[in-house]
What we know:
about 375 residues; alpha/beta; DHBP synthase; Rossmann fold; 9-stranded mixed sheet; 4-stranded parallel sheet; 12 helices
Amino acid sequence: MKIPAAIDNLTKETSSTHNTEVLPHLHHAAHINAAVRLLRIGQVVSFPTETVYGLGGDARSTVALKRIFQLKGRPTDHPLIVHLADAAQLNEWARDIPAAAWKLAERFWPGPLTLILKKAAGVLPLVTGGQDSIGLRVPAHPLALELLRAFDGGLAAPSANRFGCVSPTCPEHVRDEFADKLPLVLDGGCCRVGVESTILSLVANEPVLLRPGSVSITALADVLGCHPRTQNTSSGGIRAPGLLSSHYATRTPLQIINGPGLWLQIDHFHSQGVRVAVMILDLSILEMSHKHRSHIITMPSSPQAYARGLYRVMRDLDCGKYDLLLVEAPPQTEEWSAINNRLQRAATKETTTGDIQYDSTQFSDSTPWHHPGRYPHR
């Protein structure tokens, strides 16, 4: 297969502007070679993982790292996760690696677990956010692994979206997000996990869960022999992706409502002229009256299926048709912890005095309300 002309040209002249090339879901060597050629000259490409699509650049290249921060609008003190082809590369990026790290890697890699370890000498400060620690993982997607093996190095790869916004789980999401600002998107289909990796710190003597994901705290404890302590924010601790109070956010304000009061809230907002979309669990479908049907998306009752479709549904509803997204609160159990974490951060807005949840009293009786702090609708 011939390498697209736009890709070939970019490897010769990086200052040119080209439309994004979305290379289809074929494990063809030409696709990987095109991506590797771009990465080796400091360009940034998007590739799939099992969790979300990543915005990948050479983790040893200051040029590539600066480009990642520029594209995302990400603060440079916010660390990046480095993706590796194999656990054997850990020694190139981390030092003083505890035995627990090797056990966890053997059990969960390739897979959706990021380990925070003490960084090795020579790791660039842009990767670590100026900290003495680094986040590392081996993704469980065949296209990502093929790319990493061909590149033969670490790829810093945050989610391929604007900072603080909803992560992409399909190649179309990346294209919508960055239009012609990316030279290449490798199409690996839709991500099978759908939410970001679990993040576990092993920097101190006590393991610390920084971000819940599909690798549960119970599964971690089975390997560690103890339950990790949890750290929910970056305040006073290690800074890691996904710890800001407001994150994974739609442009349209989002509220989480407990099931018993959901329909009263819907009626309340409708009476005020507020255009509402609702995400409910299918177990509550019997409570739904006919007049609400056109405004409702039924989510799966399985946490795995719910996570897989969560960001796609959030993006679909964040289209400018609605003033408010209401989400029926999922169960407060361990298997739903990653979903609850993402929804709670999506429903939080930053203020000068701290983080507050959206308040229904902000909606007037006559005018649909739009939060001025959010970006304009797509």
